[in-house]
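Hypothesis: this fold can be encoded by more than one sequence.
Test: take the structure tokens below, design a sequence, compare later.
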């Protein structure tokens, strides 16, 4: 067996770690020697204080107690990540208690409802997922960059490819995919690595899926610990990449790639020309994953006459 990945001397923050996938991240990091700030608002899975009927309560202090009982080190934080000031207190608590912060796992989340005519819910979902991630990193990045060390794992979701009735949730998770990728590019020259995961796990969030067969399947094969097993690799000093996103769950990890096709080019484009060549626009022959928007154009430079800067 190869050498165990350890986090001795490292300080980690896991948001939304009072239950579900976040709890599994926090417990595995602590078991591997990290000191962990366990953040959780403790509210319901829909972002309300009490939660819907039957919801299992999440609690930062319960998880902290479990970590401590198992011989690890952890402290609880109950801030709301959607609140800029609250999010900053999570980082401050790590610094005040242990004098450093090395690992950030932005995991806190709530279910979406997606309705355009329910703007309060829509904004709350975006605020929790997207701004929650942005807020914590706004506070943490200066410290990570100053010490030229940091490992960040953000939580996207495969719902961004389609999730019936969850436009708010899927939009937020798509934004986290892009945010992670671009922030990682910006800091590629540093030793701060940022990646994202799209988990699949049986938690109180997915227990609410209204299809019992799916919930049973998740419960049998997708414990949150199997997501944490991959996320913790990305949290480690030896994290093998930055700016990437992975599906993780059920014992599988897989790289997420987007592709653009070679497409159709017309020097005098008209709607009719694109209509007539729509098959080429869509043809996946020669498709490849773009590294970034401009590099994607450069990759197809042979089909573009004005090569511009490329
Ligand atoms: P969960 O509901 O068990 O965990 C989410 C935790 O975040 C809860 O403990 C909740 O109290 C906390 N939280 C919510 N709003 C917060 C806020 N404003 N500030 C601090 N904490 C807050 O659900 P689960 O499944 O463990 O979700 C973890 C993450 O994984 C979420 O971002 C979720 O969107 C994402 N995800 C989960 C999937 C799954 O299959 N379980 C699939 C795709 C994404």
């Amino acid at each position: 067996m190869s050498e165990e990945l350890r986090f001795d001397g490292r300080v980690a923050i896991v948001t939304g770690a009072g239950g579900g996938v976040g709890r599994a991240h926090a417990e595995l990091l602590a078991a591997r020697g990290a000191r962990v700030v366990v953040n959780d608002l403790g509210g319901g899975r829909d972002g309300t204080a009490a939660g819907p009927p039957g919801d299992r309560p999440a609690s930062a202090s319960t998880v902290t107690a479990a970590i401590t009982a198992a011989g690890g080190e952890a402290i609880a934080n109950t801030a709301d990540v959607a609140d800029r000031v609250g999010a900053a207190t999570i980082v401050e608590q790590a610094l005040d208690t242990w004098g450093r912060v090395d690992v950030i796992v932005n995991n806190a989340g709530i279910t979406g409802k997606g309705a355009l005519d329910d703007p309060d819910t829509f904004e709350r979902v975006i605020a929790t997922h997207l701004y929650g991630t942005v807020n914590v990193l706004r506070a943490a990045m200066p410290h990570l960059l100053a010490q030229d060390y940091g490992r960040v794992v953000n939580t996207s979701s495969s719902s961004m490819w389609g999730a019936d009735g969850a436009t708010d949730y899927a939009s937020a998770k798509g934004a986290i995919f892009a945010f992670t990728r671009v922030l990682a590019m910006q800091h590629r020259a540093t030793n701060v690595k940022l990646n994202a995961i799209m988990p699949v796990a049986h938690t109180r969030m997915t227990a609410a899926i209204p299809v019992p067969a799916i919930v049973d399947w998740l419960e049998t094969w997708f414990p949150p610990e199997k997501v944490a097993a991959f996320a913790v690799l990305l949290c480690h000093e030896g994290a093998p990449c930055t700016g990437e996103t992975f599906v993780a769950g059920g014992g599988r990890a897989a790289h997420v790639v987007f592709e653009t096709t070679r497409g159709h080019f017309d020097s005098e484009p008209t709607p009719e020309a694109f209509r007539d060549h729509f098959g080429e626009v869509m043809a996946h022959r020669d498709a490849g994953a773009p590294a970034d928007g401009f590099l994607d154009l450069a990759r197809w430079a042979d089909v573009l006459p004005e090569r511009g800067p490329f």
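Residues 15-16, 18-22, 39-43, 45, 47, 58, 80-82, 107-110, 128, 132, 155, 157, 198-201, 203-206 surround NAI (CB under 6 Å). The chain has a mean pLDDT of 91.
Hypothesis status: open.
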